[in-house]
Amino acid sequence: MNLPTIYLLRHGQTVWNVEERYQGQLDSPLTEKGKNQAKENALKLSKYINIKQVKFFSSPLGRAKDTSLIIAELSGLEDNQIIFDEKIKEFNYGIFEGKTKSFCRETLAVEFEAREADKYNYVLEGGESYAMVNLRLKTWLESVKNEKVIVVVAHEMINRALRGLYYNMKKEEMLTLRQGNDILIKLENSSEIILD
């Protein structure tokens, strides 16, 4: 499948990021640092593209939406030009959502250990696996394959899976990928570049 060049962003830091809580498809607000990260990412983007000339996709979850709105405002883009797409909302953590990692490790130890043993396939109660996320991301990639360049604001787990699909990585390699809240990544052909 031909794929567009993707400028890939993660939402700014949130309260729950600081508290080390699983967010998944629940939400918490951006911190002041998170808002500043969104502003910095808008400036980074402006060095490489005119955002008004490409399609701008965002997860509809509050933290990504708020990040996208900050980027749009600083880029002279109208809010209604952002495409909020359900297919790129965060991985669903099921029973872990809203809980701290330490709580899950201790109180939901059986589920925590089972997921750690097979992160790609394990499905938390009420949640998803990476295998399931990959299916929805493949559908989304199919829908954007005719674009030349796009901007995407999403989440760490989604961006990890998206990068893995983009390069046809082995799942073990994909699971090691990280992206900070202030990192802009350019996916193009067979390369991945972190942009300053």
Automatic annotation (TrEMBL):
One of its GO terms (molecular function) is phosphatase activity. InterPro entries: His_Pase_superF_clade-1 (IPR013078), His_PPase_superfam (IPR029033), PG/BPGM_mutase_AS (IPR001345), PGM_Phosphatase (IPR050275). Substrate binds at R10, H11, G12, Q13, T14, V15, W16, N17, R63, E90, F91, N92, Y93, K101. Signal peptide: none annotated. One of its GO terms (cellular component) is cytoplasm. The active site is at H11, E90. It comes from the Bacteria. CDD domains: HP_PGM_like (cd07067). It holds the Pfam family His_Phos_1. This is Phosphoglycerate mutase family (Rhiz). It comes from uncultured Sulfurovum sp.
